Amino acid sequence: MQSQEVTALLADLQAGRQSAMNQLAPLLYDELRRLAHHKLRYERAHHTLNTTALVHEAYLGLVEQTQATWQSRAHFLAAAAQTMRFILLHYAEKRRALKRGGEAVGVPLDDLHEAITEERADELLALNEALKRLADFDPQGASIVAYRYFAGLTQGEIAEVMGLSERTVRRRWLRAKTWIRRELQPPT
Question: Which of 47, 62, 87, 175 pairs with 36 at a CA distance of 20 to 30 A?
Fold first, then answer.
């Protein structure tokens, strides 16, 4: 039932009823927190990062999208995951700039900024660069990696979002994952 309600609210959003977003958020809040937790799981050990801040920042980014055309729950969650990815990349870039002597830029999520260590920022940015290179010749593979790594979406959810079969997603995932791993290995 919740999936049908989410789909109906997404249709309302497409029709221009922005108040539907206020009804949608509580229905998806736990899943948005799961996504945020998934994204933050590789941050430095022993920190007490508040995943709620990442959820709220992503939610604000999604609410501001007036041209969004989400067709399903999985599609909305994929958009939320991408928004969280860009937030984390933004903080990683700011962290790298600080490391290299750049000026600090005002950032609203202080806890998140603190949690991205120099090492983690470099890893996140390296992965993002590898994904950009992969997208040059395999855009679907790059999207699948982003959905799996950054969003933690299942192969079924990715298939739904991308309009592919699960078998195709599985095959493209394995090929893209192998390529990314090879790209990220240090030269020998």
Answer: 175
Residue-averaged pLDDT of the chain? 76
Structurally, the chain folds into a number of domains equal to 1
Q: What is the pLDDT of residue 121?
A: 66
CB contact burial 153-164 (16+ within 10 A = b; e otherwise): bebebbbbbbeb
Rg (Cα) of the chain, in Å, rounded?
A: 17
Q: Report the 10 Å Cβ neighbour count for 90.
A: 17
Alpha-helical (H) ranges within 41-72 are: 51-63
Looking at 43-47, 53-57, 76-80, 136-140, which range is the least confident one?
43-47
- Identify the CA nearest to 74 among candidates 164, 177, 139, 178: 164
Structural domain boundaries, residue 129: 2-184
d(CA 104, CA 84): 21
Sign of CA dihedral 110, 112, 114, 118: negative
Token output for 150: 């950054």
Does residue 86 have a pLDDT over 70? yes
Label residue 169 exposed, middle or buried (CB < 10 Å: 0-12, 13-18, 19+).
buried
Report pLDDT for 99.
65
Handedness of CA 94, 126, 68, 73 (dihedral sign): negative
